[in-house]
Design goal:
- The radius of gyration is 19 Å and the shape is globular.
- By secondary structure, it is mainly alpha-helical.
- A 4-stranded mixed sheet has the order 2-1-3-4, sandwiched between helices.
- Strand 1, helix 1 and strand 2 form a beta-alpha-beta unit.
- Helix content is about 35%, strand content about 5%.
- Helix 1 crosses helix 7 and helix 4 packs parallel to helix 7.
């Protein structure tokens, strides 16, 4: 998520198309792209506001990669140079020493297309961007980084289920993850109605699937659940109002609301969510569709902590593994962002 600053006011005024990741190098166990997996070498740059980046935050925590892959958190409010490190002392990332993520992009390539997006992984020694391929980063964390996983890390992309996981994720991406954006940034009524209709048709199909099973694929949490969760957790806070995806609220769908709460209350999910960052980013940055920049007070996030009763469907959240430990103090979500 992210683009150069003058693009923020253009949302809702010109046709929306999601950019492909321009930098698609992979960090792999065998280093075949020139970037071998190595503890301490890379820095993951994220925004807690961004659903695409939040996938990587959740995966990193579930897999126990905190010590191997450090994390920088950008300010949820961008300026005309996009993501910035104004949450850090002196406005600089303490590891990379830069004020803007664009500086790491520039060290990799000048005049790159597609703007500055998160998640991004930067090579610390050179300060160069390695990848901003949000679709591939989490798959590689789950598979290529295995040697650095914590003991008891879950298998988020089990080999025997990959075809089904890929199929579910493709549908979720097209109609839900990206569908809410196509609705929110539509420039005409027909475009909006088609996207919004697609969002809710897919959500209803997912609800039917999740009525009889605790997780999307198999009986454990997989990459597919992570990708759906990052949209659902933002649904009532921003997509329902800001993006006009308002056929119904998530909290009004018994199955999806229980499923989302189940994940939220699972270590590694809700403890990475910052509702303050989420709301301020969408409502204050997208001036093309919210010119006044007013951030709504609601909805009350306390509902995320209410009982979900999904245990009756059995399922083993972490499979043969275990839950991650407590969040390290430096990465705890501030109180104002939590329910």
């Amino acid at each position: 998520m992210g683009r150069d600053g003058d693009g923020n006011s253009a949302y809702g005024r010109k046709a929306f198309r999601r950019s492909k990741s321009h930098f698609a190098d992979r960090i792999t166990a065998d280093g075949r792209d020139g970037w071998p997996v190595e503890a301490g070498r890379y820095r993951l740059v994220v925004s807690r506001a961004c659903p695409w980046a939040s996938r990587a935050v959740i995966s990193r925590r579930l897999l126990g990669l905190e010590d191997a892959l450090s994390m920088a958190i950008a300010d949820p409010i961008q300026d005309d140079r996009s993501w910035r490190f104004t949450l850090d002392p002196d406005g600089r990332d303490p590891v990379l020493g830069i004020r803007y993520l664009s500086e790491a992009y520039d060290r990799r390539e000048s005049g790159y297309p597609g703007g500055v997006s998160v998640p991004a992984i930067v090579d610390v020694p050179s300060g160069r961007l390695v990848t901003n391929d949000y679709q591939q980063i989490t798959l590689d964390l789950a598979t290529e980084w295995r040697a650095l996983h914590r003991p008891g890390a879950p298998d988020l992309y089990p080999e025997g289920l990959r075809d089904e996981i890929d199929s579910v994720m493709a549908e979720v991406y097209e109609d839900v993850n990206n569908g809410v954006y196509r609705a929110g940034f539509a420039t005409g009524q027909e475009e909006y109605e088609a996207a919004c209709t697609g969002v809710f048709q897919r959500l209803e199909k997912l609800a039917a699937r999740l009525e009889r099973q605790r997780y999307l694929v198999g009986d454990t949490i997989t990459e597919a659940d992570i990708r759906l969760f990052t949209t659902l957790v933002r649904f009532d806070a921003v997509y329902h109002g800001h993006f006009k995806c308002n056929r119904w609220k998530l909290a009004e769908n018994e199955v999806l609301w229980a499923y989302a709460r189940d994940l939220f209350q699972t270590p590694g999910f809700g403890d990475t969510v910052d509702f303050d960052h989420i709301k301020r980013h969408y409502y204050q940055v997208h001036t093309g569709i919210n010119p006044a920049g007013i951030v709504p007070l609601g909805p009350d996030a306390a509902g995320w902590l209410t009982p979900h009763h999904r245990e009756r469907l059995s399922g083993r959240p972490f499979g043969d593994g275990t839950a991650p430990g407590p969040v390290c103090p430096a990465e705890e979500v501030p109180a104002r962002g939590r329910p």
